[in-house]
Amino acid sequence: MSVTRRAFLGGSAVAVGGLVVADKLRFLKPAAAAAATAEQAAGTASGGALSGAELVYRTGHSNNCDGACGHLVHVVDGRVTMVGPAPWGTKTVSGAPAPTFHPRVCLRGLSQISNTYSPDRVKYPYKRVGPRGSGQWQRISWDEATSLIAENFKRVQDKYGKTAVWVAPYTGSLALIEGVVGAGFRFASVIGASAGDSEGDNEGDSATPAGWNYVLVDPANPANGGGFFTGHESVDFLSAKAIVFWANNVAETSIPDWRIMLDARQQSGTQLISVDPRFTPTAAQSDMWLPIRPGADTALIDGVINYVIKNGLYDAPYIRAYTVGPYLVDPRTKKWLRAKEVIPGLSGKAADDYVVFDEADRRLKAAGDPTLGSAALFGRYGQAGLQAPTALQLLAEAVAPFTPERTSELTDVPASQVVALAQAWGTTKPLAVRAGFGLSHWYHGDLHMQALLTLQAITGNIGVHGGGVTTFAGGLTTTAFDLLHWWAPNGKPYTLLEPMNFCDAVEKGKPFPVRAAWFMVDNFAQQMSDRNRVVNAIKQLDFVVVSDYVLSATAELADVVLPACTYFEKTDLLSSNNFYLQYMPKVIEPLFESKSDLDAIRLVAEKMGVGQYFDKPPQEYLKEILHLGQKDADPTVRGLTWEQLTTEAVHLNTDPIPYVPFFNKQFPTKSGKIEFYVEMLVPFGQELAVHQEPIEASPTNPLFKKYPLVFLSTHTRFRTHSQYVNLPWLKEVNNGGNGFLEINPKDAAARGIANDDVVRVFNDRGQMKVRARLTEAIKPGVVNCYQGGWDTLKVKHYIEGHPNNLTHQIAKPAQALIPNFPSNAAYYDCLVQVERSEA
Amino acid sequence: MAAGTSTTPHHVMVIDTNRCVGCWTCAVGCKEVNNEPLGYWWNRVLTTAPNQSTSAKKPASENIDVPWGEYPNVEMSYLPVACQHCNDAPCVKVCPVQATFRRDDGTVLVDYERCIGCRYCIAACPYGVRVFNWGGGEYAPGGVVGYGKDYRTDGHLVFEPERPKGVVEKCTFCVERIDVGEQPFCVEVCPLGARVFGDLNDPASEVSQLVNEGGAVQLLAELGTEPNVYYVPTRRRVMTET
Ligand code: SF4
Ligand code: SF4
Ligand code: SF4
User: Fold this and answer.
1) Residue B28 · residue B88 · CB < 8 Å
2) CA of A110 to the centre of ligand 1 (A)
3) Kind and range of the H or E element at B151?
């Protein structure tokens, strides 16, 4: 490496920043510092050294990040002084060796101290005294606040029905007691209220899980609980020979996981391939980057499937053994042909069996026929005028138009790269896919996942180490936790109201009226798509409660704001995106008058006559959820002791280790096989994963003339959704915390936009203003504005508005087939225009 | 200049640019463990072209994460830069009061009790990694964080939780940690395992292997400052086939 002196003397010295490379480091000018008040620092006064004994706790980072890192938290004199990475337990619950897992942390985790001690903390309960959203508050006591909540909830329930109170606990935390599966659902159940979905963040992360369930799960089977979603344990990627990062910027958003990918490359020469319209840090370190047109993902996958089939690169034995590939489809109904329809004399189970064509004796047979030699994969078979194709034959025909050239036209990926990707896919085994939730932020996000699984099925990459399609994996999605009894201790679960249906419920009373809401661990009024509509709906409510540790855009719309704790100030358990149980002890007392959500709920519950469901400390609820010490504890946690749980991060008993879903090749579908031909999607014309254009963000959309830019709102390493955004350390290295619009210089030039100009981004739903950042990292025709910045009365990270002023809430009907993932906010399926503007 | 004797370790740090993803965790960790005031960064992460020679290439942008080239033929790499702990350190030479000194293990430190704030060292350092404490610093979490105690080596006061006004500060290789056998905090927190710290006198150490066989290089080696921080150059990858 030759770096000359000039590299470091590019400009005049900026003394304060230190490093003299002024022309590259102007962004490091000291931020207008947030004033540190004496009040926020309980403990050592500024200026002195730390005194007193240092206590070190192990906890888990429960913010809404897939990292789920373990942290060591140092506490001196009751104040947190340091956060660092924590080691992992080396054993499973039952004592088997756990995989080697590096201690992990990132810049957000390290910044948690400044989050807990932030001047932005809500310190006391408040009630609104001016018009809603006016920012006029009066400090009240917890007693008054909880009385107000109880009275208003009772009044609304009496007048409009029990479900008119909507509880919305979301993914601001992934912990058990408080968070996406937390006590809010229990509260909703025992007061008979409605609540949002708990299976995960429905606000855009449900489409790919729905697609996953189409292919791998029978949603109608009660044993599947309405659908689930899991993936491979992170360290399983060490077994892959190639890893495709599909719409997944791991190196920036799940930073510690990227180490595993680099380790795989270093140890085994694993090929890293990135598919992304943006040149991300992930793309920059990959061996191949495919710069795809946003939303054309299924087209590219179809191109690969076509190449794999045409060139015989599929895994025939795997397709025969584990997929519906050889099963015949009735061409009249597009449903599965049943044995009794073509084979006389069958009775019982065999009569309803699937039908295959035996290549050995050239006869139609029931799939379970013991005389079956080798089922035909391709072709049309039958009798008396009925020529029934195999499912694989239908797939081959459906993707036949996706030649490398046609695929290139549809995706903007060069044909040579389509071939290179397909060649790698067909010849490298095992091959793993990491699919980002960005892939889910599309109207056809379900289809993208259906297509990826189809490709992984025909190449024999499902249920094997180093294979699969992984978005999210881990404890929350296992059976380790008895969530049903946790949520509904009285046996009567809350009524589900999807976030996507919230506005209809308020505006039209459909499917039932909602007149009051309690938002917790969520910033719904900013982070939900079609924000203008959401804010209007919230303003129409009779009564709004928000629990938060900062005065978020949602809290500003509340009638009562409750000061919540950060995770240092309460006890919980994290089991998310890895297979470890991470006990989260309370490491400091709640600051100011903040309370854990469990404590806040208890106070309200007592006043509503259901206090008995919340009268235990969190430790006791954890024991109940885990069935700790009981014989009927789930096998993944059976034999776990409280001491084990609270002394180290213990790995679940998984089979195999590292965990791989469907390792036993038992698929919980109707057929027991991988159903890449999805019979239940026939009414939607989506039985096979064939590319469809995005619902909005497509050049085929007439709206494209008016709004010719695809608008993405992706994640940055400097925040987790709307958390960590306003922390001084992170703001100093992230443009002062100010949002910007990534735009290609070509698109900018066509609009007379220079770097740093203020621009207006707009469509029919709304607008935002922000400064332009010209960068060759983004595809012409696409713009991107990192989401999550605050748009509150006091703090504005964009000049005006938020990316969600532009996004929509168009749900895809097919998804309703999967009860747990019925609707999805297609954040990225969005068109805008951009113009220069005045600040 | 020979570094250390056979009994004294020769401390070096090696940063693998093939692993660094520009995440700033090392820099934030440095800020945390050393209680650096707002606006001060002892360690920071530049966006560069792979193996950048900026004499030939202008920065693509003053902003981070902006690549070189024209979409989709673009490239980007990252370069974390803190004090290079030079064996022949210009800052040591110009210090009129020997406040800046080099320990036998290769660590270059500032004695805060001797520093008179003349800032000759800031001008002399070719890497621009020193910061001057103008005083009145503000601290994000509203209290001391990090190591939190004074630390002396051979009687020199080389760490204080809050440095006095008017001294020059910089990376200390986390001297208070390495002296008790721990890793510098940036090495411990780097989520990519991109940073390796160890003893160059030990031929079996990972740093020895990276320096002797891994092709690790020094920044501005031609200046003869002999840094004890090395960088593993970026191996080229085929990014697009257009
Ligand atoms: S934010 Fe995510 S990656 Fe960073 S420390 Fe927390 S869990 Fe780990
Ligand atoms: S923490 Fe590691 S990967 Fe991140 S910027 Fe620093 S050296 Fe690079
Ligand atoms: S990098 Fe600069 S401050 Fe550090 S030893 Fe070298 S000359 Fe001195």
Assistant:
1) no
2) 9
3) strand B151-153
What separation in angstroms does the CA of A482 have from each of A479, A626, A672? 7, 6, 26
Domain ranges of chain A: 126-201+478-565+592-634, 234-323+408-471+666-684, 326-389, 702-836
Q: Given CB atoms, is B215 within the 8 Å cutoff of chain A?
A: no
Structure tokens at A820: 């747990």
Above 60 in pLDDT, residue B56? no
User: Which tokens belong to A107?
Assistant: 């810049």
**Token pair recorded at residue B112:** 């805060």
Give the CA angle between residues B175, B179, B182 to the nearest 5°: 90
Going by DSSP bridges, is the β-strand pair A355-358/A495-496 parallel, antiparallel, or unpaired?
Answer: unpaired
User: Could you tell me the pLDDT band of residue A474, with boundaries at 50, 70 and 90?
Assistant: confident
Q: Cα(B200)–Cα(B197) distance, rounded to whole angstroms?
A: 9
Please give all residues whose beta carbon lies within 6 A of any atom in ligand 2, as ranges: B 15, 20-26, 45, 78, 80, 190, 192, 194-195
For the segment A313-339, the average pLDDT, to the nearest whole number, is 98
Q: Which amino acid is at A775?
A: T
Are A136 and A128 in contact by the 8 Å Cβ rule? The answer is yes
Is residue B53 scored above 80 in pLDDT? no
CATH number at residue B135: 3.30.70.20
Contact by Cβ (8 Å): A697, A295: yes
With both helix axes pointing from N to C terminus, report the angle between A445-458 and A297-310 in degrees, rounded to the nearest 10: 20
Question: Do the Cβ atoms of B216 and B230 come closer than 8 Å?
Answer: yes
Burial annotation B47-56 (CB, 10 A radius, 16+ → b, else e) = bbbbbbebee
Bridge partner list, A71: A59, A85
pLDDT in tens, A242-297: 999 999 999 999 999 999 999 999 999 999 999 999 999 999 999 999 999 999 99
Mean pLDDT value across chain A: 92
On the question of pLDDT at B140 being above 90, the answer is no
Element (H, E) at B4: none
Number of domains in chain B: 1
Give the chain B residue nearest A256 (alpha carbons). B191
pLDDT at B237 (0 to 100) = 61
* Pairs of residues, one from chain A and one from chain B, whose beta carbons lie less than 8 Å apart: 308
Is the domain covering A234-323+408-471+666-684 a CATH 3.40.228.10 domain? yes
Tell me how far apart the alpha carbons of residues A521 and A498 are, in angstroms, rounded to a whole number.
16
- Chain B: closest CA distance from residue A285 (Å): 7
Q: Name the residue type at position A642.
A: W
Nearest CB among B29, B62, B119 relative to A27 is that of B62
In the numeric block, which tokens belong to residue A21? 């490379």
Q: What are A69-122's pLDDT values in tens digits?
A: 999 999 999 999 999 999 999 999 999 999 999 999 999 999 999 999 999 999
Check residue B7 and give its pLDDT. 78
Which of A1-15, A122-136, A633-647 shows the lowest mean pLDDT across its residues? A1-15
The three-class DSSP label of residue A336 is: strand
**Is residue A363 helix, strand or coil?**
strand
ipTM of the complex: 0.94
What tokens does A633 get? 């504890």
Q: Using the structure block, give the residue that is written with the tokens 């080389």.
A: B158
User: CB B217 to CB A1 under 8 A?
Assistant: yes
Task: Tell me if chain A has a CB within 8 Å of the CB of B118.
Answer: no
CB within 8 Å of chain A, chain B residues 146-185: 146, 148-150, 160-162, 170, 185
3-state secondary structure of A299: helix
What is the third-level CATH fold of A702-836? Barwin-like endoglucanases (2.40.40)
Q: Report pTM.
A: 0.94
Question: Containing domain of residue B85, as a range?
Answer: 11-232
Pairing of the two strands A495-496 and A194-195: parallel
Q: Which residue has the higher pLDDT, B60 or B122?
A: B122
Q: Determine the Cα–Cα distance for residues A348 and A361; give it in Å rounded to an integer.
A: 24
